[in-house]
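Entry: Ubiquitin thioesterase OTU
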Amino acid sequence: MASLAFKVKSKNGQNILKDLTSESTVGELKMFLSSLSEVSCERICVLCGYPPKPLDISNDNKTLSEIGLKTGETLIIEEKSAPSAPSVAKSDVTKPIENGISHETIGCRPGILMKKVVPSDNSCLFTSIGFVLNGNVDTSVHSLMRQIIAMEVASDQDTYSEAMLGKPNSEYCDWIQQPSSWGGAIEVAILSRFYGLEMAVVDTLNAIINRFGEDKNYGQRVFLLFDGVHYDPLYLEQSDGGIQTVFPAEDMDIYKEAEQLALEAKSSRQFTDLNKFTLKCMICNKLLTGQVEAQKHAKETMHTKFGEV
């Protein structure tokens, strides 16, 4: 029996499902998807393919091979409308599917936009993206994300030229897979496309939001906070103790909250000036001030491992 792996997208973010085989049943698939998406088996709707189309999962006894599912497929989970549901206000109606993701407006939003502090270990960008995708701090996710980025860059040497990367393509691919290498705009853009999400980076140094994937019309958006050196994820802390990290792209209320957070952070100087921040060379322990000094030290000594101080 062939093992299968699926990328699963739902309102809870993105997950990888690896626990099924070609002989697993539709009923088993629905139970796993229900656990990941928190949508009951009776109301699960699965979209698959490009453009995404509903998958026939009406017969729980059919095998996954019989319904044509292959490893590597992306499964988008939606929730069917409850039958004979009472009429609701216009603002609560589920909107049509766009790019395979349904958009739901949020009426009265309980909670406040908060920052989740992640470790300053040179992989803070990747840990932050892992948090908004999965809802927990996992410092091991950087390895997979670095591999994803290296594969994308290596596959398109025309786009990812030395002029864009600041180093030869192959050298960059080796560099980005080192745990000591920092991620930035190039890496955010690649991961935005890979995960099919708009990634809004709240820049507290300039009090602006840089939107990666804005031109792709993705149905969902996540928020990252950037202070000039360090990334942290943003989430909505709800009154019932739960958290929300993925938001409909059309939800401009939460976007405005993020804009306000950027303004408040800048006014209270919660940012790092790249010309003044301190780095430590992890090879010779020399302290360096600012990005320029760090680059000069790396060029002179070939030391490339730096830590935040």
